[in-house]
Amino acid sequence: MSGPSSPDRTTPSTRAATVAFDHVTKRYPGTRADNPGAVEDLSLEVPAGKICVLVGPSGCGKTTSLKMVNRLIEPTSGRILIDGADAARRDVTELRRSIGYVIQQVGLFPHQTVGENVATVPRLLGWPEARRRERSEELLGLVGLDPATYRDRYPAQLSGGERQRVGVARALAADPPVMLMDEPFGAVDPIVRERLQNEFLRLQADLAKTILFVTHDIDEAIKIGDLVAVMQVGGHLAQFGTPEEILANPASDFVARFVGADRGLKRLALARVESLELRPAITARPGDDAAAARSRILADPFEYLLLVDALDRPIGWLAERQVPTSGVLSEAMAASMSPILDRRTTLKDALAMLIDAEVQAGIVVDRRGVLRGLVTVDMIVERMRSPVAAATSAAGPPG
Amino acid sequence: MDTLTATVAWLLDPSHWAGGDGIPTRIAEHLAISTASLLAAAAVALPVGAFIGHTGRGGTLAVNVANLGRAIPSYAVLVIVLPPALQLAPVLGYDPSFGLSEIPTFTAMFLLAIPPILVNTYAGLRGVDRDLVESARGMGLREGQILARLEVPLSIGVIVGGIRTAAVQVVATATLGAVVAYGGLGRYIIDGIARHENDRLFAGVVLVAGLALITEGGLALVQRLATPRGLRLAARPGFGPAST
Predict the structure, then answer these.
(1) Most exposed residue of A201, A240, B109, B230, measured as fewest CB within 10 angstroms of its CB?
(2) Could you tell me which chain B residue has the CA closest to the CA of A159?
(3) For residue A33, what pLDDT band results from cuts at 50, 70 and 90?
């Protein structure tokens, strides 16, 4: 979460650990048939440095699974391995201090200042005062809160979004290899949530922690997760895979219903223009012969001519009827533009822009604004229907 | 001379401010028995309340027992404790006058002070947001650290409130000590009734009421000062961020 006051990142961490669930079961002695919160034979492995989102309806056992990692809940059977070592065999306090923990209500201590809150675990670990203060300030900067402004404030003096950032800073304080986040952005409004998610992904790109993240929001899961574990009531793992795999090939009716009827559209949010083979445009420059250009577009099913400047930067479209039968082309003739996209634009955004556009082709340019090719609605729709490409299923973070 | 002027005159009489039956002596006795019984009650009720409040175990039982204690009048306790306290004097080797006055008074005040302290400590700790406690536990605070760094600071206002209630009740009720030959300000009331000296009687009433009010005010101040700043900010209406 780099903000305007972000300091130099003096201690970027590369420490991360794999977290593996090995046939983990948690049963409650209750009588309810659906057994809310129970977990049934959960096995999955989160590679070091990846974000795994546990998602599912309430009572599906996602929070239970999370709390078994830091042993707030002990499994009935099975093991949880952190870097291959059984969590149950470690000293519980020492284990918890090595795992960052953020909950929805944030859990900031209201009687302590922001600085003291962030330094909670370093204090437990017996760091000297000066080092704790230094670390607090570094982390506040990292999450985009100016230390001088925020250090001595109390949680009651912060907005929801600011509290959430302090919560993340506190969880990071002792540089834990593993972080557990239980609906960390659930208590803020959608606009703030979106911003926090983006900042969180930027931060994670630097920190590369192993993160287990619980949410009930499938859109958040798809956006945040390198891997997504869809759970269903009864504590069964319904599917575990990349967001792309889950959207493209839901393993069951439950998963298909849970990800929603618009899963094709959701997939588009994961893919970028660069994943498409671009269509070449018919181009001409101001000063070119109009008749020659006209004959070229008539030969093409897409009856538009794209006027570009001397550096191949797009100027605008000419429909077939706008191209004179004789004389030369001029810049003034280019009446309409259509969306300018770059290689990193998501297909979902591209589609949204194309639907509103006069000419239904997106112009893809590179960083210098030079034309690379075109994207059409048909190309996007075709991509939406395609099965998962091998390359995308092994891809890294979607953000 | 009406009662009010007689009472004021009695209070202003210098001879009533000296000697074994003087006002300073009686106030000192009154405060001594009140403080001792309050401290003893706190020594029992605070740890028990903290334990049941933190663990949530045995809470209903403890609160019910404490409230049962509330139902027994302090006067009855005096009467019940008096005979054994006297009989045990030769056995345990203390002065029989101690068994006649201090022991019954102390016991009655001790039992009177326990319920408010115990109930408030328990309720204060239970009132701390469970998510906050679990978040602290999840970060690796040990149980004692959760109690000392989180639960007690967050409920200190309620806990001191319990001590304040207990203290006011004890100061007001320690008057009964005079019934069993203990000193204290109750002496003036009992003697005033016995001797038909209304000025003495009402002077005692005024002094006890005054002492109770001072106790109330002083501990209210302590309660305010003990509440952490972050909590006072949170409680202030209209304070806080303008938007998220």
Answers:
(1) A201
(2) B244
(3) low
Asked if the Cβ–Cβ distance from B230 to A155 is below 8 Å, we say yes
Say yes or no: A109 contacts chain B, CB-CB below 8 A: yes
User: Taking CB atoms and an 8 Å cutoff, what residues of chain A touch B234?
Assistant: 110, 154-156
**What ipTM describes this predicted complex?**
0.80
Shortest CA gap B116–chain A (Å): 25
Q: Identify residues of B whose CB sits under 8 angstroms from chain A CBs.
A: 129, 131-132, 134-142, 145, 149-150, 153-154, 228-231, 233-234, 239-241, 243-244
Q: Do A160 and B244 touch (CB under 8 A)?
A: yes
Determine the average pLDDT of the residues in B49-64: 88
Residue A358 sits in a domain of what CATH number? 3.10.580.10
Among residues A50, A53, A48, A45, the alpha carbon closest in space to that of A16 is found at A48
A127 at interface of B, judged by CB pairs closer than 8 A: no
Domain encompassing residue A181: 19-269
**What's A259's DSSP letter?**
H
Q: Where are the domains of chain B?
A: 3-229
Are both A117 and A227 inside the same structural domain?
A: yes
pLDDT band (50, 70, 90) for residue A324: confident
Torsion of CA B46, B50, B51, B52, to 10 degrees: 100
What's the start-to-end Cα distance of chain A, in Å?
Answer: 14
A155 chain-B contacts, CB cut-off 8 A: 230, 234
CATH entry 3.40.50.300 includes domain B3-229: no
Q: Which pLDDT score, from 0 to 100, does residue B132 have?
A: 92
Angle between helices B102-126 and B152-173 (to 10 degrees): 150
Amino acid at A27: R
Identify the domain boundary among A207, A235, A269.
Answer: A269
> pTM for this structure?
0.78
Spell out the residues 6+ positions from residue B137 whose beta carbon is closer than 8 angstroms to its own: A72, A96, B143, B146
Phi and psi, residue B69, nearest 5°: -60, -35
* DSSP-H helix ranges across A36-124: 62-69, 92-97, 114-118, 120-124
